[in-house]
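Me: I hope this is not a bother. Any chance you could explain this protein sequence and its structure tokens? It all follows right here:
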Amino acid sequence: MRFRLGIVLLLVALLAASCGDDDAAEVRVLRLATTTSTADSGLLDAILPGFEAGHHARVDVVAVGTGQAIELGEAGDADVILVHARTKGEAFVAEGHGTVRYDVMYNDFIIVGPDDDPAGISGMPLAADALAAIAAAGATFASRGDDSGTHTKELGLWTAAGLSPGDDAAWYKSLGQGMGATLNYANEAGAYTLSDRGTYLSQQASLPGLAVMVGGASIAENVDPALLNRYGVIPVNPDKGNIEADLAQEFVDWLTSVATQQQIETFGVELFGQPLFYPDSEPWRNR
């Protein structure tokens, strides 16, 4: 009797293990290449569990600069990309690497710097004028230098200022780092830098030496249209092979849905008194 009971229990255990293996095998994996700001701000940690639970999927996130995220998509090493630098995203689609670019959200860029403000830029309305003042003062400026969307925006602002700092400018530090590391460097070195507001706010408590110099206390106070920062999501072209195209489209539909956009709208409000990102998808605008 005990022998038979043992056999039954063993069979039940094996069946349960087999079912568990089947369930695990059914979990689909989505490769998401995205900007450091969506990860460093904590947004993805806040919203992705809802997608994973609702779609029986796992999202593997690679958070890099926009340029690197686009390269991953071009190589077919990502199923979907979530990036800013709109012109780069549109070029990604135009060149056949992605299917369609969908608006997701926006925030803004700010210039932060040391409290003593050696370049005297605090309160300047336009970023290009502030950069010109930083260059004139020879004050230390930390650039991400990583072909990210933020780096691309920074280079455009230098061009607008009529300047092109490089290795010959001792005050200009090109780090080749993400936003979080660049902010930490600026904090420790007493340097200015360009940051997306979301990442700065999320890390502000650990950046006691930095303050917002250009862009105001909120996006409503930012009067420089050049500092607007738009994000889009793009499924990678399935013709590249080994692309989870259906799951990528499910992710896009979920991310741009009114329900998820509402999550984006409230993210950060409780901690920082303002959203870190503002919803901007077509379903949200047409709700």
About this structure: Confidence is low (pLDDT under 50) at residues 5-12. The longest helix spans residues 2-26. The chain has 13 helices and ten strands. The two ends are 66 Å apart (CA to CA).
